[in-house]
Design a protein that fits this description.
heterotrimer; A mainly alpha (170); B mainly alpha (121); C mainly alpha (385); B: 121 residues; mainly alpha; 3 helices; 65% helix; C: 385 residues; two-stranded antiparallel sheet; two-stranded antiparallel ribbon; 14 helices; 6 strands; 62% helix
């Protein structure tokens, strides 16, 4: 019972924060609401008995990716550039369109989901060690490929900042 | 599992907000003078606001941090499970698996150093 | 949180007490910092108010409360006010996750005319299986308070201080996270209580199929991973923005860094946040490398046995034994906090490029090498601990 109440509270907070992301005019406040939303998602992972995923969600999304966003947004003069972020008819059109498409997709999925509240699967708490035993044996190729994928990030970032017209143009 | 953490966060947040609020009530109310309400500058009249150029390196550092952070996160489950695999006789496989992963990691780091992306003149 | 009223009440009170413990340690630490720095620099320090200047803390607290309210113009008032409160939260949550003493077993007892079942109270606000990972994750949120303070106060010094602080925090988070991986290989767990359990007794481990026992050393993590400890301690100094890594508040260049425009109680909250991070770092160091709340060898058992024997009631004996062990943990934490203060008044400050070089080009490779070397040794020597 307490878990269900907690779920609805967290879900409502997450959605409210996500609404804040699109409704605020100041891009920095949008980013901060996105942080709150990420933390809410992490809380939902905890409720699903997946604390490892929840902690990773906090660490990577709230602690690393969003710090980058906030850093970048602090470097541009947001008072002056407000209109570039939120304004214009084309922008409003695309916003409305994407909201429509997304909500359509979501409602279709919700309608197709069987409406029984009985749990067919009992969820066991995922131990970190169980994740490890799957990840490093069955999915080892994916794990190594992830290493390669991550390698692309620094190379790409530096290369992009060095091209002609880039920030580190030589 | 998460309830105590939320309660704790709420508790601390209330404590901090209350303190700030109480202090704002107790403090003396004095006249706002122009000089007092200038952004702090070392004795001179303020010239610049926060609109100043900031080195792009902060941004580069943050992006590189994301990459290395994700790699380190994968080492945690690996470290916890490693000795079970050693005891089961699969230690060598796990070790070389990690060796390749860290090798990619080190390659990225060396490339960054060579490209002088980590230099702060 | 608990199954009945009594358990829930105790858990909430426990949470509050652990938080208040953290908060009230701060004025004492400020006093130690000022008197300690005076001692190191052959001065007197604050010695007028009360014995040894101890009531100076009280006077300071009152002074902070009665400061004039100030909001810089053109600043973002909400963010300006939110930053000091946010500075408090990550440290307080992280500190709650570390066991400060052994669990307290309570036998069934009578109260208010009804039976209250057996309980086990852990001496921490919450206990997660992923302990250390959650604490690292929560601590990484500390960067937001600094960024918001810097951006919200509309001052270039604040903004630069915040940028420097966050870049420094994220750089050293890598070395910090990596330096623990070697130890985790040996412990095979992320949970703090299990780690403390594994560090009991004298130093003993299996090495190439032989059992090695060194009776005069405790079974502490520091003897398995000395390099890991040095790397972690260095990274902890950088994470908490303490000298020799206090570039964000280098007063020669940046006035006071991200809290230039803050004063009075809001400034105090930033202080509590900073000292809170130091306490978390010290507590993690103690738990990972220095046996947690346990005394070396089996001294803990004999000590708690003696305490339990002194009380007629079993429940009271258990509570008192846990409190005695809690003092041990506090003393260990205070020792490392003293090291933080000691280093601050001994070493000069780095330059910013030196700081970044140390983090990325020295500590990161060394901690990677530590991970690989530990893994190779475990593979060659079979099981270690």
């Amino acid at each position: 019972m307490a878990e269900i109440v907690l779920f609805y509270l967290l879900a409502a907070a997450t959605v409210a924060a996500a609404v804040g992301v699109v409704m605020h005019e100041n891009p920095l406040l949008c980013a901060l609401h996105l942080v709150l939303s990420m933390l809410g998602v992490a809380g939902l992972f905890f409720l699903l008995q997946a604390p490892f995923v929840g902690a990773v969600q906090i660490m990577v999304y709230a602690g690393a990716v969003m710090v980058l966003f906030v850093l970048v947004l602090m470097l541009i003069d947001t008072n002056q550039d407000d209109e570039k972020f939120s304004g214009g008819n084309i922008s409003a059109l695309t916003k409305g369109l994407s909201v429509g498409v997304l909500s359509g997709l979501l409602t279709s999925i919700i309608l197709r989901t069987p409406q029984s509240l009985q749990r067919s699967v009992t969820y066991e708490a995922y131990e970190v060690i169980d994740i490890a035993k799957l990840l490093f044996t069955k999915y080892v190729l994916a794990f190594e490929l992830l290493g390669v994928l991550l390698l692309v990030i620094p190379v790409g970032v530096v290369a992009l900042s060095r091209i002609r017209g880039g920030t580190h143009d030589r | 599992m998460i309830l105590p953490i939320l309660v704790l966060a709420l508790m601390v947040g209330t404590f901090g907000t209350l303190l700030v609020y109480v202090a704002s009530l107790l403090g003396p109310k004095k006249k706002k003078t122009v000089a007092k309400y200038m952004p702090y500058e070392c004795g001179l009249p303020g010239q610049e606001t926060k609109k100043t150029n900031v080195s792009i390196r902060f941004y580069l550092t943050a992006i590189l941090f994301i990459m290395f952070d994700i790699e380190i996160l994968f080492l945690y489950p690996w470290a916890v499970a490693y000795r079970d695999f050693v005891d089961a006789g699969q230690g060598a496989f796990m070790f070389w698996e990690l060796f390749v992963f860290i090798g990619l990691f080190v390659f990225g780091l060396l490339w960054e150093i060579k490209a002088k992306a980590l230099d702060w003149e | 949180m608990g199954s009945d009223v009594f358990e829930i009440t105790v858990n909430v009170i426990k949470m509050l007490i652990i938080f208040l413990l953290m908060v009230q340690l701060v004025p004492i630490l400020v006093w130690v910092e000022r008197r300690g720095s005076a001692f190191i620099q052959n001065r007197f320090g604050p010695n007028r108010v009360g014995p040894l200047g101890l009531t100076q803390l009280l006077a300071d607290a009152v002074k902070f409360l009665f400061k004039e309210e100030f909001v810089p113009p053109k600043s973002h008032a909400l963010l300006y006010y939110a930053a000091p409160v946010l500075a408090l939260i990550p440290g307080a949550i992280a500190f709650g996750g570390i066991p400060l003493s052994m669990p307290i077993d309570i036998q069934p007892f009578q109260m208010f005319g009804s039976e209250w079942g057996p309980y086990t109270f852990k001496f921490q606000s919450y206990d997660l299986d992923i302990g250390i990972l959650f604490i690292l994750a929560i601590s990484s949120l500390g960067a937001y308070a600094l960024l918001l303070a810097g951006w919200g106060s509309n001052n270039k010094y604040s903004l630069f201080g915040a940028l420097r602080a966050s870049a420094q925090m994220i750089s050293y988070e890598l070395a910090m996270g990596l330096s623990l991986v070697g130890m985790l290989m040996l412990y095979q767990t992320l949970n703090f209580s299990n780690m403390v359990e594994l560090q009991k007794g004298p130093l003993h481990f299996m090495f190439f199929g032989k059992e090695i026992l060194i009776p005069f050393l405790p079974n502490w993590g520091i003897f398995y991973q000395p390099l890991g400890f040095i790397l972690f301690a260095t990274a902890a100094f950088a994470e908490t923005n303490r000298l020799p890594f206090d570039l964000p508040e280098a007063e020669g260049e940046l006035v006071a860094g991200y809290h230039t425009e803050y004063g009075g109680l809001k400034m105090l909250l930033f202080y509590i946040g900073e000292y809170g991070h130091m306490m978390v770092a010290s507590a993690v160091m103690v738990t990972f490398y220095f046996g947690g709340y346990e005394l070396p060898f089996s001294l803990s058992d004999s000590l708690t046995g003696a305490v339990r024997g002194a009380f007629s009631s079993v429940n009271l004996g258990n509570v008192m034994a846990a409190l005695v062990i809690h003092v041990v943990m506090l003393l260990k934490i205070l020792f490392f906090l003293w090291v933080f203060i000691w280093v601050r008044w001994t070493l000069p400050r780095f330059r910013y490029d030196q700081l970044m070089d140390l983090g990325w080009k020295t500590m990161l490779p060394w901690s990677l090498a530590n991970v690989l070397a530990t893994a190779y040794l475990i593979l060659m020597a079979g099981s270690a601990v």
